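Please predict the structure of the following assembly.
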Amino acid sequence: MTSVAASHQAASTNYVGESVPRREDFRFLTGTGTFSEDIKLAGMLHASLVRSTLAHADILTIETEAARAQPGVVAVFTAADFGDDEMGTIPTDWTLPIMDGIPDRYPLARNAVKYVGEPVAVVIAETRAQADDATHFVDVDYVERPVVVDTEAAAHEGAPLVHDRYERNTSYLWHLGTGDWEAVAAAADHVIDLRLVNQRVHASSLEARVSLADFQIGTGTLTLYLGTQNVHVVRRNLSIAIGIPENRIRVVTPAVGGAFGSKLCLYPEDVIVSAVSRRLRRPVRWAESRAEHFTGTSGGRDHVEYVSLAADKQGKIQALKVTTYANLGAYVSGMGAGIPVVSGMMFPGVYDIAVADVDIHGVFTNTSTTETYRGAGRPEAAYLIERAVDELAAKTGIDRIELRRRNFIQPDQFPYANATGMTYDSGDYEKALDKALEMIGWDELLAEHEAARSRGRIVGLGLSVYTEFCGFGDSHQLQLVGFDRATWEQSVITVTRTGSVIVQVGIDAAGQGHETSIAQIVATELGVAIDDVEVLQGDTDIVHFGTGTFNSRSMSSAGTSAALAARKIMAKANRLAAHLLDVDVKDLVHANGVFSAGSRQLSFEEVAVEAWRGVDLPDGMEPTLKEIAVFDPPAFTSPFGVHIAAVEIDPDTGAITIDRYVAVDDCGNLVNPKLANGQIHGGVAQGIGQALYESLAWDEDGQPMATSFMQYAVPRAHQLPRLETGHTITPSPVNPLGVKGVGESGAIGSQPAVVNAVMDAVRRRGVENLDMPLTPAKVWSELKEAAK
Amino acid sequence: MIPSAFAYAAPRTLDDALSILAANEDDSKVMAGGQSLIPLLKLRLASPALVIDISRLDDLREIEETSRGFKIGALVTHEQLISDGAITRAWPIVKDAGEDLADPLVRNRGTYGGSLAHADPAGDWPAVALATDVVVHVRSLRGAREIPINDFFTYLFTADIADDEILTHVEVPEPAPGTVSAYVKIDHPASGYAVAAAAVSLVIDPHGTCRAARVALTGVGTTPLRSVGAERELEGGVIDDDAVRRAIEHAADGIDVTGDTYAPVDYRTHLIGVVTGRAIRRALDRRL
């Protein structure tokens, strides 16, 4: 059997490593994508929430009669209208084994409210406007209780309690580390101490959250449409909260306008619309306002950290001590409790430090919950160690580049287990550092800065060298710390009769371009044109199992499982092609979609047809080309990199300008360099946002100070520098693609680089410390204070 | 982010608009470009029973050159103003402020007259209007009235316009010979509004003596206002480095400066001097 058609398919199908244009772009750039709020169902009702206006109060009564009488109002519900079996507490995905459980978090507050914005009642009406109007007629009678907002204050004995069931606000104290800090520090030549605040920031996605529930009484099934990073975790947790079994829940996530970790958990509103749809037997949609997004959707970071380093005369870091107070918010959300702990595991950063003594306090306050946000623990860690290392350099007088080189973990030390329990898969920090220094022209810039300073200008140069962890691997280790999500990812590949390829993956994109990058991997493995590969995600009825998009795991886990499923397809296709060409498999050649044995050839499509027909198969082979592969990563991957910023401060105003910004990131092998670069750009923008502009804060009464983009400063294009990016490539040894992950790196390397640059500028004028965001007023007043 | 329900009227003549306004003066809002009012409605910071949309009053859409200067109709957009060669040649300060005002979408819809009537204490046009010494014209069924800009801004978001009056146009005078002007703003990173901004207009005679100085500030108090201290230091002498230094030093004299978390009082007070100095220098750089 031989084919003429096959000879036409000789074009290269090696797509991995190419900057293939993102196939999602057309619909996103032309406004033809379907987002959750674009879905309209017949008979759909609209939900609007009455939210707590107080940060801490007991609820005496909730008067809903007047609201019920408003035009278009169908129903008004409070917690009292639902039993635990209909609207139960919201489960988390990560409860540390040392925690005394978690406080009950009912979707609608029962008896008490714990933060401003907590849902208290829900108004259901025929239109959104009617629902919004009627919420103003719900009257809640509260008795105010003492409020605690500051994390450190909340951790102190005698602070007002957020939850009556606990004797203190500290939910857990987790210790990490090895060795005797006290002894090492006592004998050390240098000890530095710093107090750092890693403020609360908010992902502020372009698309806020939307949740549309559709309960069908005929089948007893519930469909929930929402923008989420993981439809399967939503399905599981929703099942627990409302008592409908998982096999009668379908969760669909259409296009998502940004997530960044803020759309990973099940939220109260998701449960509320589901329970109400079931009660009213009509579809119910809730669409978040921007103000609700700032007050109700989880933010990230919010750590107060005390860090000390002990070093010898040569600047060799001998020991690290950290005490962290991490703000959990009023409840435990999704993965919120675990983030501070894994942050602690990254405190040693890229340095070979033998002794570590780390205490992490997870603390409740009367603020909204904290959760995963781009980097989730690693930005805090990188900021902490990189600020501390610069401080050590300043104290010892050792050049900060040289100091870093003296302490780097060396390439031959990998896999490297650090002193706080994390294992890094691979790294070569010198290589990335040398490249970044060369790109920015470090020595020339230093000289330029010296000259500028002599003319009275305030300029600075700063760097960060970071490593992080991605790809959530080693399920054994993670389950020991109470992680209650899977670590594996699955892919299913089906080849149709006409040779088109359907890939189902358990990840859910929020703009990353998975439909392109996964297709690149599969097309390369199968040797078919990328246009013949379609990637499906984000619907539990299409993809039955999955773990979702977070921790920059989509390439290392889903990419790998897709490659492994494709390899299974190819193994079968090879056997079938050999059978059809009547040769031994080992004598068959497969290249760019063509199977050949000597002059005889078969196209991939022709093999697909035979697999589908199933009449001429080798003994024992089942018809069809359809395979599943599940990949459970044996370990984390460890991307790393070096970011350098050059800044200038306006002495009149304290305003900071970033003149140059270089980012060299090593995320292992690159599947799509353009998309990887896009991830770096976005991450750096968010990191600079935290360094210079953003702060999600509450006043002492627990009232939010940022409820719109009029107060909350996400950087605009004109507030960002041109980014000069580069990569080194150190393949990961823990997955067959050698990829590490790139989604969060930019947000990890950037804050310390920028703040270190500013500190470099102001330290020589006597400023000892600055906390983010580095607002002009703060910089100006510190400079003024130091000049006194 | 949905306004509470309101009635809507879109009259086609000024007389109709004035009649509707007179009949509903207790609980209505006049809307021109809507770029300030609509966000307030959506945030429910304003909940009028009636919105009177005057955007169909085509007579108010023009910039006219008159013997005394320019007559700017109430519906002239920011973009229209900064694209007008005659006015920006006469008053470069208009281009300074207008090009830095919000974004192209807002500039294409928002109006100069609406900005003045809105009387935002951090608005750009109010400061420019003070520096250029405009006269605001309003009308009601009771008749027409003109208000010198110095008397126009009375409190936070409050101007001297009665509930039954509509701002019809603004007269911008032809600058006196030797006039130079400039606007310098330090904006809030989130809102883009002025944390502090200075609008400066100076009349310099051929000998270099400053015959008149108008220094207006925005973003710093309960209304846009004049810096009496800076003007006093500039008027009557040659503006050398020392005069600029004195103007900076006295720019905030007598002003009850607003403080907030982004810009505490001491910092904003300092910024008043910074923007005043920069605006003076920028204006002086424009001397022929």
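Chain A has a mean pLDDT of 96. DSSP finds 20 helices and 28 strands in chain A.
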